[in-house]
Every structure is written in structure tokens, then in C-alpha cells.
Amino acid sequence: MSYPTNNLARRAVTLAVCLFLAAACLQPGRADPFAPRVTIDGSLKTSASFTKTFVCHVPSGLHTLVISLPVARSCKLGGWYQSIGDFVTTASPPPSRRSTQTDAAGNVFHVLEYDSPLEGDVLVTQAAMNVAIETDLDRILPSTPFPLAPLPASIQPFVRPSNLSQAGDAGIVQYASVLTRDCSTEAQATENIARWTVANLTYTEGRTVRKVDAITTLIKRAGQCRGYSNAFVALARAAGIPARVVTGCTLAGEVAVPLRRDGRAKMTVSVPNGAHAWVELWYPGYGWIPYDPQTTMGFVDSHHVRFCVVGPSDEERPLVEWSSAIDRNCNVRCDESVAGGSLTDRFDVHCVTDGEPDGRGRILLERIQDDGRQAKAPEAEHG
């Protein structure tokens, strides 16, 4: 597989660091490396509208400019439902041409093409009305045996390494093996990966970096949503679990989560407006189930809006492309923001197992796992 620049030195450092982490993990007498967890059930329902705004700063001398904006669409996954009513993209100045295109992963884009655009700002707005999102926390995670049986051909690409999720790296493979070695179900294996991720990675503030890989994130023990997601996907794929990154946005709000069954302790989870990335894992017979590597296992809350699936080899359409007859080193910079409009929440969340955050306030919120007796398989869902 290919790596970023300075390959040999990078791989040597990576292998040494990851093997050290693997050797240190789960040893007798060591502190628990996993985040504490609270199992919850109930439902999260949100009705909303929102606006995404892109400002593209265009330099002089461009020959062409192409802006490709993903379209949020209705979809249904394992216990998570998204309904999008009206979705409109507008631009000022207006483009020379516009079209709607679909990529190999099934993502839909509104594509704006400009011929000889003038220097200045191009303002593009996407407005979504009549948005309804629901998270069904009563849907129990299946007890799929682990390791998984041979996968369908269409799913096999999602266990292969990629440049950003280096699941074939020797250190990551060994680390994933240590994390999942005593697990008998897929849900248990992903729980261990999720709890380790929440406990051991630290979120870094600042401008969003889209192309950050798993190795960099694991070495630094820090990252943003893309880094968290690529690290999670790499560990899951190294364990033979199909995983993919999805992108979208979150809408600002708060979710009060009970931490004890007697209701005496609660934790407030705050969600900001902004672009976001998370992951989906594939369960045989059930389809894709969302996880947020920063907070949740087996679900994402109803303030997540899903736009795109990133391809198994990191295929992702660029937001902007351009050509210049004057300066090949020119750059088009884009600023993105999300503003929530009307938002109505109906939350009914209950604590199933007691817990409390660690000293840094970290905790994993999870759906109930099937113990082999209490759940029957729902209809398979796909996204």
C-alpha cells in the first residue's frame, strides 16, 4: 500500500509506536484503557431546518471553477432514520452551468461550473426544510458471532486498507487483535474499539483537516472528527469488521442523558452547528449501523445529518476544482458554516446500566447488545 512522504521512516516510527501501544494494552495490573460506558434505551426525535453556507474565495486569472456540493437525502439505517423534505442549492453569482450528478458510492451532488470566474467571493447556500431525524435506541445490537464469516463481495472492499485508514499496517493489525482478542460477538469487538477510542484520543480544536490518516491520529493520540473516524475504521477493518466513514453536519443542541437508573445523575451532551464525520459498521443480516467515535456506540443522535459515504479506498469528490492559465499554484479557499433554523426535540432516554464519566469527563454511550435471547433480527436496512 502507499504511504505519505518519507515512507520508510514513517512506517518504522508507526510500527514501533503501535506495537508499544499493543504491548501496553490490557496487561495484568495496568489501569483499564477503556472509557466507562452507560447503556441507554428510548428514542431521540428531532424536527428541524438548517442552512449550510460556502464562501469560495476566488483569485484572479482562473480559467474554470467547479464546485460540487453533496446533497442530504432521506435514508434508513440500523435504528436511525433521516427524512429530508425540500433541499435547495443557490449560488451568487450564478454559475455558467449547473447539474445534478451521482458518484460510484451513490452520493448525489449539485455541481456548479463557472467559466472564467471573476476575482472575488462565490457564495453558495444549501437550505434544507422539513427535516426529520429519529434514533431508535430500543433496537438491540445483534449478537453476530466474531470473527465474522466470509463477507459478500460487495462488502469486502470495506475491510481492506486505504491510504487514510491503514488497516494493513502491522502495528494496527496487532493492536486491533489485542483489543478484540476475547470477544465472541461483533458488537463486543466494536465496543472495545469504541471505548478505547473515546478514552485515549483527545479532540483538537481549530480549522477542520479533512485528509488526516489513522496512523497520524494514533501516534498523536489526538485529532478531529476525521482523525477519530479514520482511526476507528482502521482498527475495525484490521479486526475484519466492515467499516466506512460518512460525512455530514450536526445541528446545535443538547441531549440530557441519565447516568443512573434512579435518575439522580445526568450528563448533558452538547452538539454544535458544523461539519462532522462519523462511521458506519456493517452487521450481516442487518446492514450498516452508525457510530460516532467521539461519543457513541451503535447509534448517532438525532442532531446528525448524513450527506455522503466516503468510498472504501477514500474516494471522495473534492468540494472545489479549478484551472488557471496564469498561475498553476493559485488556490481557491472555501469557508463552510452551518446554521440551524427551527428545531424541535422529543427525547425519551432511559439508563439501562449505571455509570459515570472518568476524571476527564469521558464516557461512551451505547445501545443495548443482544445477549442471544432477547432480540430477533429486524429486516435488513441499507444506506
Question: In words, what does this structure look like?
Answer:
There is one protein chain. With 383 residues, the chain is α+β, with helices and mostly antiparallel strands. The protein has a domain at 34-42 and 135-315 and 343-366: C8orf32 fold, CATH 3.10.620.30. The chain is 17% helix and 40% strand. It contains five helices and 20 strands. It has helices at 7-24, 170-180, 186-200, 214-220, 225-238, and strands spanning 37-58, 62-70, 75-77, 80-84, 87-92, 97-102, 108-115, 120-136, 202-203, 222-223, 243-250, 253-258, 266-271, 274-283, 287-291, 296-297, 304-309, 320-324, 333-353, 364-366. Strands 1, 3, 4, 5, 8, 16, 19 and 20 form an eight-stranded mixed sheet that branches. A four-stranded antiparallel sheet has the order 6-7-2-18, with no helix packed on it. A hairpin with a 7-residue loop joins strand 12 and strand 13. The longest helix is centred in the N-terminal third of the chain and has 18 residues, at 7-24. Residues 1-20, 22-32 and 372-383 have low confidence and may be disordered.
